[in-house]
## 1
Amino acid sequence: MTDTTVWPLWEVFVRSSRGLSHVHAGSLHAPDQEMALRNARDLYTRRNEGVSIWVVRSEDIVASDPGAKDQFFESPKGKDYRHATYYTKSEGVKHL
Amino acid sequence: MSGHETADLDEFQSFGDVTASATRVTPGNALRPEDIAVQGEPPSSEAVAEYALWLGDDALILAQRLSWWISRAPEIEEDIALGNIALDQLGHARSFLTYAGKFWGKTEDDLAYWREEEEFRSCHLMEQPNGDFGVTIARQLFVSVYQYLLYTRLAESADSTIAAIAAKAVKEVDYHRDHAAQWTLRLGRGTEESAARIRRAVEDLWPYVGELFEDQPYADQRMHDDVVAAGVGVAPSTLRAEWDEQIAAILAEAGLEVPQVPFAMGGGRRGEHSEHLGYLLAEMQVLARKHPGASW
């Protein structure tokens, strides 16, 4: 098969009625963006999961390199002071 | 209960999933056939029950036709899309048949599985074979625009149950209309092959359009008095101009022409069907008839 007979891949993001942000739900094939949105509706919201959908061509997503995990993600490790729980609560502060 | 003088949803105030919650995914609240079975009044007359039966039979036969595509559509995404549409239609059929059955003391299953061919009241367009994907899309286009216009009017029905069913159904068939229109455009403006197939499909199915808008079945005195004049249902000819306009616009955008083909005679509302319905019913009814009362 050539590229003209295979529908391109799309990534689907769904926001639930209780959610504040769109969450990656999965992927699908569709011939164009209108059909991608409709296919996403048919595949990923049939159990009342969402009130808003985003679709984006998979090839348009720029992803970090899994092989570069060490240099990309080592820095925050061990920096406890970047987390609120690192700090002790002042005695005068209530309801925290 | 005030009965049928007022068309409001009071009778169905507590319908749907009582465990629905804002903090987790649930089926959501919507009118279900199960609610209609236990709440609300039965149809006020036999003519109203019969009208609900006509609406239910159209949806049921179309649902059975569409469900054939499950596992057979050209792509898995489209497979699920057609399956969803079939299930929407089945939902409408269940609601209308449940309501109609309350007049005769019958359940939705009694009506779906235990009537004979000549007792079904669906229009001939619904029972037309699926053909290729283009034929199914052309049938969907014709039916969904018709149902959209019909249910829009029925949402204002003087019969509160029919109004409630139509209010939910109209949103679903609005999507069916969009689905069919999107595919009509893509097939019409796609390849030479797809354009030829959708053009032929539109021409082949066009003769069955006329029956949808035929007022003759409503000329019967009871139908006229209890359904049309009472504001329970609508004379279908009044939907025709808007249907023509919408279909012409979609066909034009798809590079297709409105066929100049005469309409066929359709006696579906009298129980006269083409040779296709018998085979469809045999498949739909065989399991229920072989194992009466079985459930799962």
## 2
Amino acid sequence: MPPVTTPPDLLVLHGLRVVGFCGLERLAEATGLSHEDVESELIDLAVSGLVTRVPGPFGGWGPTEAGRAADAERVSAELDRAGARDLAADTHEAFEELNAEALDLCGAWQLRPLDGVVTANDHTDAAYDARVLEALADLELRTADVCAELALALPRFGRYRVRLARALERARAGELDQVADGTDSFHTVWSQLHEDLLATLGIPR
Amino acid sequence: MSPDARWTRPLTVDEAGTPELLGAKAHGLVGLLRLGLPVPAAFVVTTEACRVFLASGAFPAGLDAELDTALARLESVTGRTFGGSGRGLTVSARSERELPGPANSGRDLPGSVRSEWDLPGSLRSEWDLPGSLRSKRDLPGSLRSERDLPGSLRSERGLTVSVRSGASVSMPGMMDTVLGLGTGADPRAELRAAIRAVFTSWHAPRARTYRTLHGVPHDLGTAVVVQVMVDGDRDGHSGAGVAFGRDPNSGAPGPYGEVLFERRGDAVVSGGSDTLPLNDLALREPGVWTDLTRALTLIEGDLRDAPYAEFTFESGRLWLLQARPGRFTGAAAVRVAVDLVEEGALTREEALLRVAPAHLERVRTPRVVLAPGVEPLARGIGAVPGVVTGRAATTCAAAVRMAAEGPVVLVRPETSPMDMSGLAAAAGVITERGGPVSHAAVVARPLGRPAVVGVGAHTLTDGDVVTVDGTAGLVVAGRPEVTTEATLPHLRRLLTWADEISGEGPDLPEVERLRAAHRFLERP
């Protein structure tokens, strides 16, 4: 079966479904589309009543109830068009195994035992940090393997590989907030991949 | 047990095996037996057997026969038949391993199982940390969860089988535990399959990663404890709980913990059940309470530290399943060390060495002071320390809206990327499910939002004013008293001892006074 490329309007709608309330910048990063394209799709989606903009300091663009329903229907239909439902289910099952490990590692990045006391990792022990990053890199490779087939069938899943690898690359270059803090950190992207698998398969949390 | 047993050991008072051979848990159980405390009959399959299995993919020669011998002993001790009808003998298989600690405080005690995620002060155990559920496909197909069984089968003794992920090991949640074996068509084969599953789980990728991170060798292997099941859900005089010998939040004397009646131990620690304060046991099962408090006193005397114990009571009879030091932190660690000196259990020097500098750094973290008789609205795992009061918001939309008018506490079943706006807007976080590395905890930590996760069922609705204590794992109605100084008298005493030993003075920062004493006490 040939790969099914997600059209830009669904990429943006589904991006909001997976990322949550956010601005143009983050949506562009998540979807790989340009700011202009994201903005133009958002306007059309807003006109159709599928997305809305919440004002205020913690606001941003988000899907409406109708938008969530439309997204669920469209990603489900897309999954069937790609003939990838069983594949996605297998991918999800394998991902759940990796998920526990990913959370362990994000936790180990933030906290470590010091004299028997669980303490915030102050990142002064370069060797410890390097061990965590190495383990994350190994996990990322295994995750890429797990998701490779699904990314062939549904190319939008290939974007996570790029984003996860980039977060780790930046973390290795010294940007410590790229592991578990930032809006484009490894942990953030990882949890979006998790959410995407659940949303695509229509599995409630 | 036959004298030529090579791969298995019965757990008896005479067992002299090391934690490296038996695993820390089995070793700790032997300690309990020596104190004369009730421990369900058990045998251990040693780490040596595991290493042979991991190297060859098969049980070592002779283990099969030894398992039958060891089972026969359990049968003769209990007078029941493994796999028999009626109230047959059922056993559990648990993985077990003593971890050499990479960050050892130098006070490692026999039977202690240290881990990063075992957060003292939170009532969760190594039995079953949230987030540790592994896929059932790893396990033999003949094993089914207890919940899958029709109620009529469940009520017949000997027919319950549950399969759970690891825990009860120093790599909590990483390895398999299989409960309630002995009910299927071929119980002996199931037992072997369960032991194999536990052995195999040593090499699960997650377990490997954990070991790599914490400098634990990959070739140690795990022991397996095979133990007679005691049923906390057997009747109205049965239940299970966890208990500390002292309050893990404050260090104050007196038992502290949680109990569930007519439920098994895994329900206590899963976070999904409404547990009762341990004191309820005194009212409902005074005999069990008396035995438990006596046991805690004995264990504390043996450990010379505030203990932690997991227990089950079956038809009014107490059984201990695990005990180890409580591993208190911060203010509680200071208070217990000082109190134990005044009770004559420790020397001042020992007490000073019990308190790590890291404890002092969090002695002044704000804490809720519960007024007498006040029960918290909910208890969970303290995931991010600190105290905050705010209005509860049960959706992110409400949190974002209400945050404009004052501090908000986000209350969610669990969080996902969809909750990021709410997490950013909130001053504190509560989740029903999840553990210290759940999404909510990982996100709240760098934001510095006090967080309590895994509180289970609650009745909070939008607008309720609540206070979150992210150290103790408490959710309290309204604005309770908050203190940063609960332990000051104890702290002053400890630091005076430190000065006497080091010759330094009170002009130094507190942590430096403690460090100076440690340097003096630890010199070669």
